Amino acid sequence: MYTVKALYDGENIKLKQPIAIKEQYEVIIIFIEPVKKTNISDLPFKRGCMKGKMWIADDFNAPLEDFKEYMQ
Prior knowledge:
By secondary structure, this protein is largely without helices or strands.
C-alpha cells in the first residue's frame, strides 16, 4: 500500500508529491475534508495595523563595514 496526498479541484486530482511507481495500481480515493481558503478578513490583523510601528534606516542600502574588503 502506498499513500500520497493530493488536491481535487472538482475535475482533476493533483498530487502534492511525485510518485516513483511505474506499474499500474488499483487505487481508492478518499475525500478527507474540503480545503479552507483564507480570506484576508478572517486573519487576526487588519490592514494598516503596523502603521507607524516599523521604520527603515536612512542608510539601509549603504555598504556594510563587515563586507568592505569584498566590495573593492
